[in-house]
Amino acid sequence: MSASKLDAVYRSILLTKFFTKGWGKPENLRRLFEFRKVVSNRDECFKLVERDYPVTITKEQNLTDCRLLEGYFLTPLERYLPGIVPEIAQKAHFQILLPVHWPDPRCKPVCLHLAGTGDHFFWRRRNLMVKPLLKEAGVGGIILENPFYGLRKPTDQVRSSLHNVSDIFVMGGCLILESLVLFHWCERNGLGPLGVTGLSMGGHMASLAATNWPKPLVLVPCLSWSTASAVFLQGVMSHSINWDLLEDQYMSDGVYREKLSKMVTIVDEAFLAGKKFARTYTQTMENTAAMKPQTNTDDIIDSLKFNVGAKKMDITYKENAKTNAQIVDNKQTVDNKIDLPHSVKSVVDVEDEIIKEELRKLLCDNKISQILYNKLTSNKHFELEPQDIEFINKLDDGKLKVFLLKYQSVSDNISNEKLPLDGNNNKTVKITPAIENSNSVNQNKESSNENKALVTPDEKISTSLIKKERKSWNVSELTSDLWVNLPFMKSGKKIDIGKIHWRDREALQFMRGIMDECTHLSNFSVPFDTSLIIAVCAKHDAYVPREDVGTLEEIWPGAEVRYVDAGHVSAYILHQSLFRSCIKEAFERSKLRWRDGKHVD
Fold first, then answer.
1. Within 10 Å of residue 410's Cβ, how many Cβ atoms?
2. What are residue 59's DSSP bridge partners?
3. How confident is the model at residue 316 (pLDDT cuts 50, 70, 90)?
4. What is the rounded average pLDDT of the residues 199-205?
5. DSSP assignment of 476-529, as one string?
6. End-to-end Cα, the chain, rounded Å
7. Are 22 and 245 in contact (CB under 8 A)?
């Protein structure tokens, strides 16, 4: 589905930047990760907020068309995670609009409205959603001020620019518990049935809040999806983040890499890996059908899905003698573990035979010796003697490209002086074949990034020419590298989020992991009654991409998802009436089972 160009243009003209101070304190992230395990369990989370939690009403006023109340209470999160909520955000402010006269005194529906990104104070939700619902359907509304917004915004915060990544998790933790406080208050005051809704970020926060109420609850999340990770890593919002700053902090503080990364899991990776491998190997088998008989394609795909499905992406910090700190990619893990069918291995067999055939031709033409041929066609470590190097230097340019790039040097302590070709020097070069038999499919693909022995056409082989490159360089590449590295050509931007995938950088993988850990709906309880859920999404939403993440229907069986043919911005501007109609419809479903102040089965 194509993404809305309006979304991209609108986001590009906004000045708001996110996470301008980095990840946040590692200790705060650790506490939030631990607390997530509590609030993700409905039974445990519900116990955190008592039924009579103190709420203070500061204003009560009867207007011509409604009854207005204002009040506040202290956020319960401060009780359980002291010091993690900024002092100014600890007081949760809210506004309530109720009908002067209820159409049905036995049924008093009230909906909690949570704020989207940039929705400060009460006026926007009051005029666009609450008052129209009050007038059209007699549904009362509660407007809760988000932490870090409006009356709860830290004085040094500019607009909606959250300082730290951890702030978004503090906001979510606050809203989950604060919603329980307001639901309890409604029940104490004889209001119900209850519901919760929100647009964009507010829709996702509403989804999280709904997971912890142990009774039927209307839920209408608009313009949101199953996780916030895609929003910040794939959507247009990703361009408003200083990724260089986040990467620098991540790489400089070992706590992020060695401890925090072990506490999070990328949720959707295993499922996506299964789909990718099934598709890739189906194409591979079709392309090699003429070479060898194949086993049943369906059996192969099922085998691949079975092996991949049980795996989740491991983003924990790894280190060994040969490589610096790195994240283990799920694709590598799958490649290392899966025993591929013979029909898939045949592709590698063919490539191996081609290389050996080229070497046989060189042997027949007396361009290499029998001893050198035996070394090159073996699957064992070997040494190049001076006479072997002499043979190689006599090869023409084309053969050099075919031959040398298939082998990698594993010598870490060879000097940079050239080897003489007169046989008087006893130095040797240790070589390991990079392409072996069909079992090499199961080897780690990252090994191909290690040292390659490269030789230019006009030079003799020397240890000084060993480079850490996959391919040989040429003049255009050399001059290009020189040009872009001139001081006046450098942009100073290391990560261009529009040109790389989140799997390509360790810091981006960490962002995906922590976002999934704290916001992915599959990490939380399923709402008590999914038949009361109507989600509204934009088909061309560039803010909230839906590709490569789990769907709401899969996570919440029984939930209904509706789509509007628009982007994120245009849906927000043009389809407010549709959002309200879905809220009214969901409350009508709830009213059918509402008797004597409670839901009945």
1. 13
2. 70
3. very low
4. 97
5. HHHHHHHHHTSGGG--S----TTTS-GGGSHHHHHHHHHHHHHH-GGGSPPPS-
6. 40
7. yes
